[in-house]
Amino acid sequence: MQATGSERRCLAVVLAAGEGTRMKSSRPKVLHDIAGRSMLGHVLASVKEAGIADVAVVVGPQRPDVEAEARAQFPAASLFVQTERLGTAHAVLAAREALARGYNEIIILFADTPLLETATLVAMRQRLEAGNAVVALGFEAADPTGYGRFVTKGATLDAIREHKDASESERMIRLCNSGLMAVDGALALSLLDAIDRNNAQKEFYLTDIVGIARSRDLATSFALAPEDEVMGVNDRVQLAKAESLMQNRLRRKAMLNGATLQAPETVHMSFDTVLGRDVDVEPYVYFGPRVKVADQVVIHAFSHLEDTVIESAASLGPFARSRPGSHVGAGAKIGNFVELKKANIGAGAKVSHLSYIGDAEVGPEANIGAGTITCNYDGFFKYKTVIGAGAFIGANSSLVAPISIGDGAYVGSGSVITKDVAPDQLAVARGKQLAKDGWGARFRAASEAKKKAKDQK
Ligand code: UD1
Ligand code: MG
């Protein structure tokens, strides 16, 4: 019996052996980030979302960094090394051992094509299931130069001609190959093994699989995607374009989920940014990875957040910075020029102005005065500050950690607190105020007399 739908076993082969010399980087191309995740990570994520459980990643020789990223993003992936760069078909065959495991479907993807949508992968698989031996993904290129061209007859794909091998008339074709390919798993190895290097680049072209399938009277077809979705990244200009397209996609998703972005084009998001309903984001806000914002939160302009959870109806900024490991409780207020780092701010607490709160627990409804600093570091180790519920820290205080301020305690403004403060205690640690009546008048009179004597000399 023929396997159908989810019973069909599918292997995704992700080619990540690119040289990426045009990136002019010490990092391999596929490890460059888009919206806070590597390009390879994006491709592996869309594979996962499409319900494909088995993945083979083909990497270049001596690329432990690429291997580590593949493992981090897709722990079950099997890794293969393409020792020599002899073309895309040669790269796929580096995963021969995986291809031979008896899959119904093989999907081949490029790790430098990071904007691919899950729905497109699903559409490719459906065409394969409909009886095609090979399905290629194409797009209408604004400028087809350099791309492989689709030679079609109706819905049939007769061949893919690489630019360098194409005739004048074939070069007029605007329907181009994205590189993404789906192949019948039972036929894949026999088709791939038939590919030779008789072409302009003396490479094993994966694209030749189409002509070979046709010569065996197998059905071959294609699917189409928008050009933006299948764009490849070869240099930093294309990286920036892919980033901008991804940003638009993420902003759109956030807005359709009920967040207001007052000036969407100025808001930078990460692949995993979560914004709740009625979240209001003012212009120029940066969301680094792992930020989760609950409903009704307001993020004021020019704020920078990373790895932070913000609970409902809290507010942050303008000009706030929340560094990794922070948690802002419901209704809490983080004001301007406040920096949080590994800070857990309780519900309803206020840190309204110019503070550094690092490695700290701040209890619910506590009030942290302007300019309060947690002194958390002695040059070697980090120490924790604990501030109790409803405590009041006077402005311009330094809390020298490790330190604990009890529930309902008060710290006088300008204090340098080095000893724990008990609940409800008042602690003041600053120089005592000196008071001398009439001192100003005496000082002015004496100084004027001194100046006069000097001028007369
Ligand atoms: C390829 C397609 C072309 C398509 C274009 C889309 C072939 C022969 N051509 O051309 O039809 O229009 O992509 O961008 O497939 N790779 C390896 N090992 C190799 C060679 C390539 O891993 O030996 C990987 C690259 O890292 C890259 C991908 O395969 O991710 C495509 O290779 P590339 O050299 O960029 O192919 P193109 O000439 O762009
Ligand atoms: Mg390319």
Tell me what you see in this structure.
By secondary structure, the chain is an alpha/beta fold. It has 2 domains: 5-230, Spore Coat Polysaccharide Biosynthesis Protein SpsA, Chain A, CATH 3.90.550.10; 236-427, 3 Solenoid (UDP N-Acetylglucosamine Acyltransferase, domain 1). It has 9 helices and 35 strands. The strands form 6 sheets. Strands 13, 15, 16, 18, 19, 21, 22, 24, 26, 29 and 32 form an 11-stranded parallel beta sheet that branches. The protein has a 10-stranded parallel beta sheet with strand order 12-14-17-20-23-25-27-30-33-35, covered by helices on one side. Strands 5-4-1-6-10-7-11 form a 7-stranded mixed beta sheet. Helix 1 (39-49) packs parallel to helix 2. The longest helix has 21 residues, at 236-256. It is elongated, with a radius of gyration of 31 Å. The site of uridine-diphosphate-N-acetylglucosamine (UD1) has 26 residues, from helix 3 and strand 10. Uridine-diphosphate-N-acetylglucosamine binds at residues 15, 17-18, 58, 82, 85-88, 90-91, 110-112, 147-148, 160, 162, 176-179, 205-207, 232.
* Number of domain modules: 2
User: Could you give the distance between the termini?
Assistant: 117 Å
> What low-confidence regions span 5 or more consecutive residues with pLDDT below 50?
none
Task: Give the CATH topology of the largest domain.
Answer: Spore Coat Polysaccharide Biosynthesis Protein SpsA, Chain A
Q: In CATH, what is the homologous superfamily of the largest domain?
A: Spore Coat Polysaccharide Biosynthesis Protein SpsA, Chain A
**Mean pLDDT across every amino acid position:** 97
Query: DSSP helix count?
Result: 9
User: Which word captures the global form?
Assistant: elongated
Second CATH tier, the architecture of the largest domain: Alpha-Beta Complex
Secondary-structure content class = alpha/beta
Percent of residues in helices: 10-25%
